[in-house]
Design a protein that fits this description.
The protein is mainly α. About 70% of the residues lie in helices and about 0% in strands. The protein starts with a helix and ends with a helix.
């Protein structure tokens, strides 16, 4: 274990690496990492080890966001959760003086902790990985998406996505939304403004423009859909073409970065 290594000076590095390695994993792994920090504190990792570890993490933000665009949001959630779990003292956040790049992440953590019922919210900060049944969250998503396709009310759908409070699981929201739209449009799909696929593209364009869903989560959702195409074609033979069309609409709507050919033009 960590104590057997007898390298106390490296204890902060354990904190930094545990969190940074979890950033490109799923909600379950991030929940396990939060629990790991709780188990390691206060022995063998003392308060100073935890604070120094998170400081190392904040100092490495510029490098982390290159590979993981959502890194700042996730580290802000880690900080808030660590305070709720009594792994970090609240003073760690209040003592920062907005003089370093990582302080905007600290401000995000302070914002999370200032919400009503913050302790309960932080216990569920990692979405389906926090012990909340995945099936329950997926059912909420399906209901939200079905109601949107009936009403086409963007503001109401956006409010529901915010309240769902699972930002690192938005790729699942996109995956489910596109599948539902494909199944509704089916083989009779046409480039009509009233199609479900067009409506779904409009929804995610709205969510990205209003900083509710990130481009990274949209791209991840589309990537997951590509892998599912062989199975999707069994129910919707036109699925490959429909996914390509949705991706193009997403790019035009500002949900995705331009394609390489567009970037060169």
């Amino acid at each position: 274990g960590i104590e057997e290594m007898r390298c106390r000076s490296y204890h902060p590095e354990v904190v930094k690496r545990a969190v940074s390695l979890s950033l490109d994993k799923g909600p379950r792994e991030r929940e396990l990492t939060s629990r790991l920090l709780t188990c390691l504190h206060p022995t063998p990792l003392a308060d100073d080890d935890m604070m120094q570890g998170f400081t190392l993490l904040l100092d490495s933000l510029d490098d982390l966001v290159i590979d993981i665009p959502d890194a700042k949001a996730m580290i802000g959630s880690y900080l808030a959760r660590a305070v709720v779990d009594e792994v970090l003292p609240p003073a760690y956040l209040s003592n920062r003086n907005n003089s370093t790049p990582g302080d905007e992440v600290v401000e995000k953590a302070v914002g999370l902790l200032s919400r009503e019922h913050c302790n309960a919210r932080m216990e569920h900060v990692w979405g389906p990985g926090d012990g909340r049944p995945v099936a329950e969250l997926k059912a909420v998503m399906d209901q939200l998406l079905e109601e949107y396709l009936l009403s086409r009310e963007l503001d109401e759908a956006a409010r529901c996505v915010r309240e769902m409070d699972a930002p690192h699981f938005h790729h699942e929201l996109l995956k489910r939304g596109v599948r539902i739209a494909m199944e509704k449009d089916g083989m009779d799909h046409a480039d009509a403004a009233s199609s479900s696929l067009d409506a779904m593209a409009a929804l995610f364009s709205f969510l990205v423009k209003n900083a509710i869903v990130s481009e990274y989560q949209v791209a991840k959702g589309i990537s997951r859909l590509r892998k599912l195409l062989p199975d999707m074609k069994l129910d919707v033979p036109a699925a490959p073409g429909m996914l390509a069309e949705f991706e193009e609409m997403s790019r035009e709507g500002g949900c995705l970065p331009p394609s390489p050919t567009e970037a060169k033009a």
